[in-house]
């Protein structure tokens, strides 16, 4: 009788554990998608609205550069967000951190939708916009590491790649939602879109934020962190411990991040301004191409995550990196054909096919090279420094290169190849991690 009861209790425990894991997986994906939706709204509107309403200039290129600068500044604040919130995550827990980051991001996004423009309050308009954008950067800096670990630390070794790929869906889903929202609102007459239409996605995001907070509030702390806390394996100052014992891993993470972040913001953000203002594409056509590419990515990422559980993280990451290097020149050539069909095909290949395996395994691979007591700090700092150096600056650098070389796209393609080479060097120095234990 006792043996039967023990077996029953074990089965119940496994079922509860499975439900908690699935719930954590949902929480990581939904919350991450909402935060990236908020984050990408700004990036997409930088070239359509903010350069006109918040950074007015007699020279359109200067206005666009200022708008992209405000976009890039948030990336430089992201490492600070990563440090602050990962300290909380490694000391107190992943769950509480994720509730804080989502609240910060949501509040800043909603307030952007209420912000008066330059004509209404003058210089305070761009100042307040930049402040709110920095708040978004702080939030997203702490969000990524927490959402990845919420999934990875709940997973079993044999499906960790798949679990770790699910929060990575937040990037394409967030971009997809943001692009669709802007496509719908930009269908308004231009004067109405600039007057009030662009504000609607920011204001309506409040509904998504409350949904995300409700889901995240109902989850438990990850088993791996619970185990570390019960055993007393908590770093006194996680940042110090990270750079003392894991500085090589941080550097390798930064280098590997380059190929994931810079090219994506060129393909998904810079391409909007480049295709419409330099190549004459219709705005809706470009937005639809980006949306379709991200939809393909949403399908590809979990498939690539599952594949990484069989063949490893490095082969997929290296394959995507090499693909990005080889496709840099063909991508811009296809855009130069000024065909909506080739624009869409090029964007699908770049984001949906080549970038997807990189994105799918990045979170899991980075998580597996740090120990539990500094894992959130390690992946957050490495990821956000890489994003700051090669991500937030990418649209601005691409635009500067375009104007410095008489509208030639060749230097931008070389810039993408450089990112790939740096990442390949970092990947060569990393070991395969799919079979290690996280504890």
UniProtKB/TrEMBL annotation:
<feature type="transmembrane region" description="Helical">
    <location>
        <begin position="24"/>
        <end position="45"/>
    </location>
</feature>
<dbReference type="InterPro" id="IPR020846">
    <property type="entry name" value="MFS_dom"/>
</dbReference>
<feature type="transmembrane region" description="Helical">
    <location>
        <begin position="408"/>
        <end position="430"/>
    </location>
</feature>
<feature type="transmembrane region" description="Helical">
    <location>
        <begin position="286"/>
        <end position="304"/>
    </location>
</feature>
<feature type="domain" description="Major facilitator superfamily (MFS) profile">
    <location>
        <begin position="24"/>
        <end position="434"/>
    </location>
</feature>
<dbReference type="GO" id="GO:0015293">
    <property type="term" value="F:symporter activity"/>
</dbReference>
<feature type="transmembrane region" description="Helical">
    <location>
        <begin position="340"/>
        <end position="358"/>
    </location>
</feature>
<keyword id="KW-0769">Symport</keyword>
<keyword id="KW-1133">Transmembrane helix</keyword>
<dbReference type="InterPro" id="IPR005829">
    <property type="entry name" value="Sugar_transporter_CS"/>
</dbReference>
<dbReference type="Pfam" id="PF07690">
    <property type="entry name" value="MFS_1"/>
</dbReference>
<feature type="transmembrane region" description="Helical">
    <location>
        <begin position="262"/>
        <end position="280"/>
    </location>
</feature>
<feature type="transmembrane region" description="Helical">
    <location>
        <begin position="162"/>
        <end position="184"/>
    </location>
</feature>
<feature type="transmembrane region" description="Helical">
    <location>
        <begin position="379"/>
        <end position="402"/>
    </location>
</feature>
<feature type="transmembrane region" description="Helical">
    <location>
        <begin position="97"/>
        <end position="115"/>
    </location>
</feature>
<dbReference type="InterPro" id="IPR036259">
    <property type="entry name" value="MFS_trans_sf"/>
</dbReference>
<protein>
    <recommendedName>
        <fullName>Putative proline/betaine transporter</fullName>
    </recommendedName>
</protein>
<keyword id="KW-0472">Membrane</keyword>
<feature type="transmembrane region" description="Helical">
    <location>
        <begin position="316"/>
        <end position="334"/>
    </location>
</feature>
<feature type="transmembrane region" description="Helical">
    <location>
        <begin position="121"/>
        <end position="141"/>
    </location>
</feature>
<keyword id="KW-0813">Transport</keyword>
<comment type="similarity">
    <text>Belongs to the major facilitator superfamily. Metabolite:H+ Symporter (MHS) family (TC 2.A.1.6) family.</text>
</comment>
<feature type="transmembrane region" description="Helical">
    <location>
        <begin position="65"/>
        <end position="85"/>
    </location>
</feature>
<feature type="transmembrane region" description="Helical">
    <location>
        <begin position="196"/>
        <end position="215"/>
    </location>
</feature>
<dbReference type="GO" id="GO:0005886">
    <property type="term" value="C:plasma membrane"/>
</dbReference>
<keyword id="KW-1003">Cell membrane</keyword>
<dbReference type="InterPro" id="IPR011701">
    <property type="entry name" value="MFS"/>
</dbReference>
<keyword id="KW-0812">Transmembrane</keyword>
<comment type="function">
    <text>May be a proton symporter involved in the uptake of osmolytes such as proline and glycine betaine.</text>
</comment>
């Amino acid at each position: 009788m006792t043996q039967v009861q023990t077996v029953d209790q074990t089965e119940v425990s496994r079922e509860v554990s499975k439900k908690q894991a699935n719930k954590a997986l949902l929480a990581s994906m939904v919350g991450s998608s909402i935060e990236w939706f908020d984050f990408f709204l700004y990036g997409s509107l930088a070239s359509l609205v903010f350069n006109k309403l918040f950074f007015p200039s007699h020279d359109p290129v200067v206005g666009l550069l200022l708008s992209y600068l405000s976009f890039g500044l948030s990336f430089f604040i992201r490492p600070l967000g990563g440090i602050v919130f990962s300290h909380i995550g490694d000391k107190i827990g992943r769950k509480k951190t994720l509730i804080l980051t989502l609240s910060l991001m949501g509040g800043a996004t909603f307030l952007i939708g209420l912000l008066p423009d330059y004509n209404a309050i003058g210089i305070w308009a761009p100042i307040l916009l930049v402040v709110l954008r920095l708040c978004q950067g702080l939030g997203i800096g702490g969000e990524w590491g927490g959402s990845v670990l919420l999934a990875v630390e709940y997973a079993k070794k044999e499906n960790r790649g798949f679990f770790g790929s699910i929060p990575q869906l937040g990037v394409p889903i967030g971009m997809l939602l943001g692009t669709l929202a802007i496509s719908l609102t930009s269908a308004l007459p231009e004067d109405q879109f600039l007057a009030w239409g662009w504000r609607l996605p920011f204001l309506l995001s409040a509904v998504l934020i409350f949904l995300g907070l409700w889901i995240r509030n109902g989850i438990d702390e990850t088993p791996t962190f619970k185990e570390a806390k019960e055993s007393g394996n908590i770093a006194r100052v996680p940042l110090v411990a990270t750079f003392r014992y894991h500085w090589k891993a941080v550097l390798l993470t930064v280098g590997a991040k380059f190929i994931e972040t810079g090219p994506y913001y060129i393909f998904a953000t810079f391409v909007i301004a480049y295709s419409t203002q330099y190549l004459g594409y219709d705005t809706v056509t470009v937005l639809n191409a980006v949306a379709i590419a991200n939809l393909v990515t949403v399908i590809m990422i979990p498939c690539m995550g599952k594949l990484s559980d069989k063949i490893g993280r490095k082969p997929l990451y290296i394959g995507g990196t090499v693909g990005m290097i080889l496709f840099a020149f063909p991508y811009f050539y296809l855009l130069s054909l000024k065909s909506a069909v080739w624009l869409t095909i090029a964007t699908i290949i770049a984001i949906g096919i080549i970038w997807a395996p990189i994105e799918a395994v990045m979170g899991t691979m980075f998580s597996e090279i740090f120990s539990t007591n500094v894992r959130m700090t390690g992946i957050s700092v490495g990821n956000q420094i890489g994003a700051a150096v090669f991500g937030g600056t990418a649209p601005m650098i691409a635009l500067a290169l375009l104007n410095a070389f008489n509208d030639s796209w060749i230097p931008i393609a070389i810039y993408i190849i450089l990112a790939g080479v740096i990442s390949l060097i970092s990947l060569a120095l990393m070991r395969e991690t799919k079979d290690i234990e996280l504890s």
